Amino acid sequence: MLKEKLLELREQAIENIGSADGLKALQDVHVRFLGKKGPITEVLKGMGKLSAEERPVVGQLANEVRKMIAAKIEEKKADLEAKLLEMKLESEKIDVTLPGRKTVTGNHHLLGSIIREVEDLFIGLGFSIEEGPEVEQDYYNFEALNLPKDHPARDMQDSFYITDEILMRTHTSPVQAHTLEKHKGVGPVKVICPGKVYRRDNDDATHSHQFMQIEGLYVDHNVRLSDLKGILTVFAKHMFGADREIRLRPSFFPFTEPSVEMDISCFRCGGHGCNVCKGTGWIEILGAGMVHPNVLRMSGFDPSEYTGFAFGMGPERIAMLKYGIEDIRNFYTDDIRFLKQFNRA
Ligand code: PHE
To answer: Which residues form the Aminoacyl-transfer RNA synthetases class-II family profile domain (predicted)?
Structure first.
């Protein structure tokens, strides 16, 4: 009886194992046949009623059936796991022979990186960065810079007016007046002011109604023209090469006295004359001068106590010279093919 029962259980188990379609179902089969409350345990429990001859025979068979079912389950388990792995590999298949996809990375805009380079240099010289508004009061753009309402030099910079008293700043020099005011007559003031400026110009290869400037201002006791010359020499060598020389030519700005224009020896031909310097050996870079006493006075500094220098340069011009860029509009039209060429930092 028990023997037949065992053989029948074996058949059932084999069938159940065969039709188990997943690890969960297989686990259920394991519990059903081999678990503590399963039929084989039942058979073993009933063995006490058997005769002495029958007992070892049934006992042995029960063990064999149990082992066999366990082995079959293990076999099936390995089989199911292999199939699962295969499915996973199939669904996650990658073609390692495909060429890689290049990640597109941006780079700094050339103007931004020129400005940063100038800022870094001057920060190293003890200057700090100052900014001012692009929509400016007439007072700061002109009057505080020694350009009263009827001054003819106002025509040097055609302006976009918003009202009679408010305009788009035509240069970064108003930041000089703002910064001096903030210091309330006490030096030193040592700042670099980069930013956008606006002029009523018709756009062409060398003119733009909007462009950038970097202003410099140093006001302290005993600041002299020779200090300006020294700083500008350091700047020229840093931006255009260690063997650059500079020269200062007399010029005019209402807010500086004396006013100068700075040239650098041509970095292309070294001063012999070429098409970059138009045969002169020199390239004009920026305007500068000693801060006019009226400017100091109007912004709360005593000109008998303080002197200073200021300069203003155009990062577009620096970039155009350095890289032979012929059209200023390239900076503003966001043509990625242009911008990509200048991955400087
Ligand atoms: N603001 C002047 C310009 O735009 C440049 C300048 C700045 C000149 C500071 C002298 C001192 O042309």
So the answer is: 114-341
